[in-house]
Amino acid sequence: MRRSARPTPGTALAGAVLAIVTALAGPAPSASAHPFGPPSTAGASVQGSRLLIAWNTDKLDWVALGESLGVFGGQGGANSSNLSFTQRLQESPTIRSYLLKHITVAQAGHPCHGAVVEDMRDFLARGAQVAFDCPAPVTAVDVTITSLTDLHPAYRTMLTATGPAQTQPTLFTSDQPTAHVRFTASGGSVRGTVVAFAIGTVAAALAIGGFVLRRSRRRKAAQVAGPSAVAAHPPTESLLPPGQDSTTHDPAPADAGTGTRSNA
Predict the structure, then answer these.
(1) Best CA proximity match to 171, nearest among 263, 40, 12
(2) Backbone dihedral angles phi then psi of residue 191, each to the nearest 5 degrees
(3) What is the pTM assigned to this prediction?
């Protein structure tokens, strides 16, 4: 009968080291979706006609997403086995396509063009930055978020404002993936602020115009009154020939006989 081989302490230690090295060399830690935890987040900020959404979720959810898309199996655009799982997610075009498919924005029925910006730099801390360029300044848009709900319908995403323009927190679920989101600033809508500013500018212009008009009318009245006064009270000198004084001039009587003036 054969005796069962017992591993020596050195063999056992080498096996343990090999197992650790194999685990560390793996593409990513194994993860399963846990949709019943805190919801994913979407920080929204308005920059004129651009809406920037920073979508983020738990680290294990990122891993589960990468596994579902085949990112860690070499199908996501990362061919080097030396890359960490964060680098594979960061450099994967599949992840970018997924985000642009599951996060969309429309304005007045027209889709806003989306693009992943900043190369997903530090996405685990700051989220994946997705910018949407809309036809007009963003005041109200329709946002659709279905990220991770394809893995499990219980996933949710909470959208909040991160810039000066504020909005009500909005929860996106598999049952309600789209919401009409309005952004306000300084206690009123962005459009209302612009309209108020325009009204103030017009009022100021009207006030200035009224002042100039009144001043112009006064000048015209003064010009009209001046010649009238002169016509009503003409100076005596204006009726005499040049060089003659009205106080000493005494025209000589005409000579009845000859029709010439007297030299006496």
Answers:
(1) 40
(2) -65, -40
(3) 0.59
